[in-house]
Amino acid sequence: MDRNTALILWFEDITIDDVPLVGGKNASLGEMVRELGPKGVRVPGGFAVTATAYRLLLDHNDAARKIRSILNDLNTHDMENLAQRGRKVRALVRSLAFPDELRRAIEQAYAELEKRYGASCDVAVRSSATAEDLPDASFAGQQETYLNIHGVEELMEACQRCFASLFTNRAISYRVDKGFDHFAIALSIAVQKMVRSDLASSGVMFSIDTESGFKDAVYITGAWGLGENVVQGAVSPDEYYVFKPTLRLGFRPVIMRKTGEKAIKMVYTDDAKSPTKNVDVPLSDRRRLVVTDNEVLELARMAMVIEDHYSARAGHLKPMDIEWAKDGVTDELFIVQARPETVHSQKDVNVLRKYVLGQTGEVLAVGKAVGEMIGRGGAHIIKEAANIKQFKRGEVLVTDMTDPDWEPIMKIASAIVTNRGGRTCHAAIVSRELGIPCVVGTGHGTERIAEGQEITVDCSQGADGRVYRGLLDFTVEELNLSDIPRPKTKITMNLAAPDQAFEKSFIPNDGVGLAREEFIINSAIRIHPLALLHFDALTDQAAKQTIADMTFTYKDKAQYFVDKLAEGVGMLAAAFYPKPVIVRLSDFKTNEYANLIGGAQFEPREENPMIGWRGASRYYSDAYKEAFALECRAIRKIRDEMGLVNLEVMIPFPRTVEEARRVVDTMAGYGLRQDENGLRVIGMCEIPSNVIMAEEFLEVFDGFSIGTNDLTQLILGVDRDSELVAHVYDERNPAVKKMVKQVIEVCNAKGKYIGICGQAPSDYPEFAEFIVECGIQSMSLNPDTVIKTTLAVAALEKRLGR
Could you name the CATH architecture of 3-194? Predict the structure, then answer.
């Protein structure tokens, strides 16, 4: 067989070098079938209708000349002109007569598929352009896909429509923008056995974090039914992160799970003209995750095998964009497509670009942030593709969801806002490639934003994207990270929000000196741990119903607390792995605990919670230690199950040496043992007794981290929440500095860790210089002050001759 003239090639006969013959999609499918099948990557069988077949079809009908004539006066910036030309070309291609030899070749190949999978087997018919999936151009969704196709006649019709889709409006426009000749590109077709994900689930995954470019995580999304809804953004899918380095070591590092709304699912029909349809998903299924942890880990392993294979071929890291499907009959997971990721793989990792919003305003809508940027302009609400020709450059596109037909206007938008979709939907993928901010899944953006209203779309502040009223000021800062010196003093970060961890990890750092549990408990859990442990005994019926709804999938309500805390802290530990990440165990005051759902029933009322029942004193108390056990279980899960042994723990507010011992013993009783697997237990130094008895405390703790906020308060006898004495509160007071210097000297003399995680070094450069001169080993700073403080510390060390 002469491969160059073949009309049909089976996947098992195709390699990645066959892009000119079968296009990017088919070449990748063939490569995976041949090379990765033995490594556990399952790909449904099938064949390619080659680019040779497409050219034969055109030549047989003298179609190229006719298409050139139609496109002679094409203007891709005139939406009406583009739509008319595209419509005419597609109608022409759909009318072309198939040469007999092409028809016979497709019929014979389908007959072979029937031998493999049964009579009239269901297939997916997908386009595979010969310039598809290049490193700097994804061509995502440029051509059409047809699902649940049965029999030869349906297959021939789907192939003809697939060939015509090489000339969709968006494909024509995209090729013009990228400088591709319409006739230098041909269309191949993938005819692939369907995975019965209509009876199960499917989705998209990336072997890199799609927002930050963090390379050590697999990001997986999924929803019920066939995968088109996830790709198109018709649903808000479930989301998962898996940490690659410890997965390779045999651990189970599912570091994040989020349940998406998944309101609809795409299923089969018996209608040949409309072979799929969307149906509503029952509420009970919307609340459930679509894949188990075991399946999430299996998907992540396949993603890593695929990435490793293509990286080895390329000679450098090659992040991949992958579609997956679960068969509801066999429960097997399949890979149905894999292509190069085209945004972060092209970025200069040494340049840190930061968008900073200069002011805030009324929030009109909130969704998932895509792009870490800010854009602004007049809102243009478009509900139907027929109206896209009215869109003007620089406007903000506000719509229910986008599809590939909208790409000609997406590229001239200043930002995009959608009601539906997740971070792997069409709008998200295209906006990343175009370099514009996008907020997806706002729910009701088209209702809450008025037509023509001036708005600012902000994706610069973590996972949540916000749409503000008005044209707000913002700046863009660029920094070349290769120019940042690394001082001898370790510079770590104070961090609380897991959804910012991957992004912040790119700032030059030595780890995390303070990871706060309170933020995670407040935002991701929201429920008092004792209310979960004693759910049946709750007297507040409204709180009980809220907890029941939030923990719907949990028989063991307490496990909800363990899982959510482990995911939040685990994200922080993974982002900075293998650098140390010190998590401070919960340090709520009684009034703050009481504000958690169901908390009022379990918390006493205190006149002065700031110096009341908080921190270490709670952990061993009979009234609370069963709740503390949940924290210990979460930390054990992170270290033992996820393999993130870089996580260390810090005990807040230890008043006495005896109290420190009781906490360490209580932890050990719950299986969290100091020194086991390298676990360090750090004490907060924030009470004068910690400094006065430092040597004794250090017989228990592996070191101290100075908390200047509380230490200043208690040295000076100032309530830091009181405006009346606020003028007295100053971390630079000589008494505070004297105590700070003293504890640094004791720790260094005993060879123990000494760091600082209070606010002072972030707020006052002169305080940072003072503690460097005292010999501090590590200072933990707010992320926005890390760079400037690093530079100042490096300069000071140079002056000190270190």
Answer: 2-Layer Sandwich (3.30)
Has domain 484-800 been given CATH number 3.40.50.360? no
Q: Give the mean pLDDT of 380-392.
A: 86
Single out the residue of 654, 670, 653 nearest to residue 562, CA to CA.
670
Q: Percentage of the chain surpassing pLDDT 70?
A: 97
Which positions ≥6 away from 631 have C-beta within 8 Å?
517, 529, 565, 585, 586
State CA 263 to chain mean position distance: 21
How do 46-49 and 351-357 pair as beta strands? unpaired
The domain segmentation of the chain, as residue ranges, is 3-194, 198-345, 351-480, 484-800
Tokens matching residue 550: 């939030």
What CATH number matches the domain at 351-480, 2.160.20.10, 3.50.30.10, 3.30.950.10, 3.10.129.10?
3.50.30.10
The residues carrying an active-site annotation are: 426, 757
Determine contact, residues 428/465, Cβ cutoff 8 Å. no
Helices (H), 210-330: 228-232, 244-248, 283-286, 293-314
Q: Is 4 exposed, middle or buried (0-12, 13-18, 19+ CB in 10 A)?
A: exposed
What phi, psi does 537 have (nearest 5°)? -95, 5
Cα distance between residue 476 and residue 339, in whole Å: 31
Q: What average pLDDT does range 127-147 have in this prediction?
A: 64
Give the CATH number of domain 198-345: 3.30.470.20
Res. 282 pLDDT band, cuts 50 70 90: very high
Report helix, strand and coil shares of the chain as percent, to nearest 5.
45, 20, 35
| pLDDT at 407 > cutoff 80 | no
Mean pLDDT is lowest, of 164-178, 278-292, 440-454, for 164-178
Q: Tokens for 387, please give them.
A: 């109206």
Distance in Å from the first CA to the final CA of the chain: 72
Query: Kind of pairing, strands 201-206 and 217-224?
Result: antiparallel
Q: Rg of the chain's alpha carbons, rounded to an integer? A: 30
Q: How many CB atoms lie within 10 A of CB 383?
A: 11
The confidence band for 135, taking pLDDT boundaries of 50, 70 and 90, is very low
Q: In sequence order, what E strands does 184-263 have? A: 187-193, 201-206, 217-224, 238-243, 254-258
Q: Is the pLDDT of residue 136 over 60?
A: no
